Amino acid sequence: MKNIYPDERDSKITSLRVEILPHWSETFFFRFCMMVLGGIIVYMVMQRIKLRQKRLEHELRLEHEIFAATVERDKEKQIRMERENFFTNAAHELRTPLTLILSPLQELLGTVRPSDTVYTKLAAMYRNGTSLQTLVDHLLYVQKIEAGMIKLRISKVDIVVLAKQITDPFHELAETEGINFTVESLNEPLLLWIDVEKISSAIRNLLSNAFKYTSPNGKVIFKMNRIEIDGYSFCSIIISDTGKGIPEELRGRIFESFITGENTPLFSNKVGIGLRIVKNTMDLHHGTVNLDSTLGKGSTFTLLIPEGNAHFAEDRYEIVGAPEMEEYALPLPVMQAEGQEDKPSNKKTSLLVIEDNEEIRHYVCSLFCKDYAVYEAANGEEGGDVAMSKIPDLIISDIMMPVKDGFTCCRELREQPRTAHIPILMLTAKAEDADVLQASK
Known about the structure:
The chain is of the alpha/beta class. 47% of the residues lie in helices and 17% in strands. The chain has ten helices and twelve strands. It has a five-stranded mixed beta sheet with strand order 2-4-5-7-6. The chain has a four-stranded parallel beta sheet with strand order 10-9-11-12. Helix 2 (117-147) packs across helix 6 (274-284). The longest helix is centred in the N-terminal third of the chain and has 84 residues, at 28-111. The termini are far apart.
């Protein structure tokens, strides 16, 4: 700034420095911060995109794994069902001819005296036929084990009395085979909650194996004790023999299905399912089965069965009354029906047999033709027609038949007022729980 006086003199120039700062939005710091913030935002967006991509990939991988697991599970289920159906159908096909073998043999044994020469041969045939039938039942039982379909039917029984009933028949076998059989039981009753049928089968199986692999003049010992482990009481059943023993390489897998020794008389020529059933029986009872064997000196099996029933708290089971033990022996004499009368008109009580197998149908008819007016039908449709026309007093029907199965035939008969009152017996090789339940409906 400069002033001019009236006499035209100039004053000194006075200056004022004014610096105008840029707007805050135009500063370097703001721009730097914005660049950093923008970089952070871009980084976060990119990370979010990557995270979303990873999440999508993970979800796709999970979906693929779930789909693969579902396919695998469905495949295993299908294989299991096909296997169960195969064994069920195979058992049905085996039981049918076995019925035609064992039933006539049973009748023949009832008409032949034990002193006759042919009686021994017939008894051997019947005994081996029964063993084959038991093997078929065991094969089906193993399939039930694999499918987890086994349910206990427990009752409170005296194991001392049960053991005596199981071991008594083996004394006669011991005398025949020349084996020293010793039973050491408790002197007082011991009540256990067990499935009598399964425990009896397990003990009988172990005793049978002991006698099978023990040479004459050998020893088989059955010993029962009451022991305590970690504060819990157990019933200990020890079955030992002086047989050939079990090779070391088989001891760890002896309780698996279809595990046997070499195909020689020294070890086993069976299919190897008995011990698998014994192991499953003990597992269901929350007990254990242990093996101690020395090759050439014998084997010792120890069953530990817990006392009480608290260990069954989370299991599926059914409480039943204590059943009476049945002794295994040859059948009682049965009078054989002589001849077959087709449809005698002088008999008031009538019977209808519905069976697709001609031999089975004729055999069943031969059993009743002497006392009943017997009618026959080869399938469910034909049986329904005969039942509607003849109104029999009793119907015996098979289940697996062509054209129309037994269940459908029975359901239709139950829906008809004329035939709803007729009692129906299902005579079939399909003896599974599901079949029994379906037949009862």
